[in-house]
Amino acid sequence: MAERRYDHREIEPKWQAVWASERSWEVSNEDDPRPKAYVLEMLPYPSGEPHIGHLKTYSVGDAVAHFQRRTGHRVLHPMGYDAFGLPAENNAIKTGQHPRDATRESIGQFQREFREWGISIDWTRELATHEPSYYRWTQWIFLKLYERGLAYRKEAAVQWCPKDQTVLANEQVLDGRCERCGTPVEVRQLEQWFFRITDYADRLLDDLDAIEWPEHVKTMQRNWIGRSEGAEVVFRCEELGIDYPVFTTRPDTLFGATFFVMAPEHPDVFPLAAGTEHERAVHEYVNEAVQESAEERGDQDKAKTGVPLGRTVTNPVNGEEVPMLVADYVLMEYGTGAIMAVPAHDQRDFDFARAFDLPIRRVVEPASGEAPPEDEAFAGHSGAERLVDSGEFTGMPSPEARQAITDWLDREGKGHASVNYRLRDWLVSRQRYWGCPIPIVYCQADCGMVPVGEDDLPVELPDVEDYAPQGRSPLAAAQDWVQVSCPSCGGDARRETDTMDTFVDSSWYFLRYCDAGNDRAPWDRAVLRRWMPVDQYIGGVEHAILHLMYARFFVKALADMDLLDVQEPFAKLFTQGMITRDGAKMSKSKGNVVSPATIVESHGADTARCYILFIGPPDQDADWSDSGVEGVHRFLARLWRLADQTAASSSADPPPAEPTDADIQLLHKTHWAIDKVTRDLGDGRFAFNTAIAAVMELTNECSKLRESAQPGALRFALATAASLIFPFAPHLGSEVYELLTGERVWQQPWPEADEALLESETYELVCQVNGKVRDRVPAPAEASGQELVALCRSAPNVRAHVEGREVVKEVVVPGRLVNLVVR
RNA sequence: GCCCGGGUAGACAAAUCGGCAAAGUCCGCGGCCUUAAAAGCCGCUGCUCGCAAGAGCUUGCGGGUUCGAUCCCCGCCCCGGGCACCA
Fold it and tell me: B53 C1' – A764 CA distance, angstroms?
């Protein structure tokens, strides 16, 4: 008989067809006594075809989903597409192909490949964010936010990308450059839509404690929110009779304030300078400063610049008149756009004072009494620093003085405790075509800004000829679409032509999956209660701030509107590492791209998926290796071949027989593997690499004992190996399990390890002398401490080392070792 | 500068509670099968000394705690990531 070979091309389509026709992964919203598990991977952005990073994300998620199903959960594991966005639009500008068509093609490619990978998706809940049936509800949520005052329009200095011709959210600017295309951004004064995420700063911060996320992701979010506690202190300009509050985290240094600085964008800068000798210089400086790119201005190494305003303000604690200046190191967007400068205790103020020869007055000293270095500011955060030259507060420890001075200011009506955040409101307008239209019209008569009625949603995205951005949205060219009658008075009105940031679309999609077919509401609250929150969310760490913060904000805002019952969308988060090749990120320009389609064709989806999970811990970056793929393929082929041979040479129901030593050995190994894999997958562990290694060990043991073990034991061991590998290699797992048992593995409960079989009757006792291993002897599992010591002492090589010396201590670790300490 | 990760054989990695360092995979070497090759199967594989038994060394570097440290503590070096003129 010719030997058959493992052929993934035959096995994989066969099982994919079974899963599709039997709708194996669909889950209903009906009552079900099993506990729920909502397993979700971040939805893909459909551009071109899936890359290796997608394969990793969905291999991880699918392993979790399968494990949850087989451990008795009803599992929601859906899929969708984040379909609006710039790449499709830029492609349209270049080729003329409508973004909708390019997106459709790409989605088709993703769907095909997800099926070829054998990912267990409930396809009845599939969605794409560019479909009117979805974005209708994105617009609905926008209107809800608007009703509550959480969506608002204001003119502000915003970041503008000259290449993409659109404004960007604060979060989408990195080092002064557009996150997407790398072009230095400009600052423009524009009227735009914002979401009031800053209202939620404290809750976004506090609730991080309630979710199981990687600590570094939480840290990134905390840093991004950037909560600072301090005080607002009022400095008064007596000449003009105007109060200028400033924010400081160090009210204890108030006596050291020797000057006062305003941001160039501060609206009072020109009025203040008017009529002074500095008026012209101030105009020149401000005009130059506002033209600087964010990158230039943000450069910390840049020398400090600024000019005097020719005015003074009064320091409220000591009545001292200090000069006012304007300088670009002060930001209009943070605090009040003006600061009190304490050069002795703030490095930036120190640098500025040095450059402009302004006085530096120390008011805080180290506890040691030692003089701090002269050439830098003394920040001192130990808590033991004390105040000097600070009037009635002199001698007070610094932290106490913060409180005392704040209280004093409050009593005098010159300030109060205050909190500031680095987080800014979320700018959601985009002057681009391929996005969700903002459902607002502007009445030409007297109604002003009017929301589109809920019944008139969706506001559908019109077709246009020219996608190219011209600094206003391409939608403005769709005359018939823009002209509309006012929902309020029926008069002439114009539609808002900006679209929404695509992060809006993806801030609620996990809610829609729960009730994807609902055409009367975005979701039914009772249905949402059955599934939310997502129990395990999986995706790349690159979304640690943007997407994950926005989604949390949406859920909190919607909960406040009494539309859902959870405070956090994602109870647990797993962030996977990148797959590199030759140590570098895969990219077309480097020519080091491995496409999932190629590897699935040549080696099969099971091999590709197993390899990606076997390569190393999934939260770490890992380097792709072609020979590593071969190794995993060999392992799967060996498991299949052993099963095929065993199935062919023995009956499915072999007669019971007295177990041989080999049978017992194999049985032990089988239960060891069950235990190992179960622990590696359970309890939020993502140790797929060691789980797969354990199945490899079991398979190797089967191979070694295939002649000596009886068919029954061999069948059990191999079927168990198939059952354990199934979450990672579902096609092969199903095939092998069926070959040996005639059953469908995914309908079987997860195997349970028999405690009694995890321990053997004897083990190898490690015998140490002074902490060094000198011998190993077999010991009975139930031996007492004294017996173990006796065994150890009689081991030949131990005797040689103990000979003629005094044993001063015996350390016994039952089940492991004995250590004799000798002198 | 601040905050997170990480550093273990030739490569990727394991060691779950302080208890045998290196499971598993790749690479390499040897053997079996074969006319030959492929596939498959079996074995070897940290360094030094030694015929061997064995001994010494080894988890980035230096110290500490401990009967015992990859693991805990202190100091330092290197790599990766995040934040950074946020008062």
Answer: 21
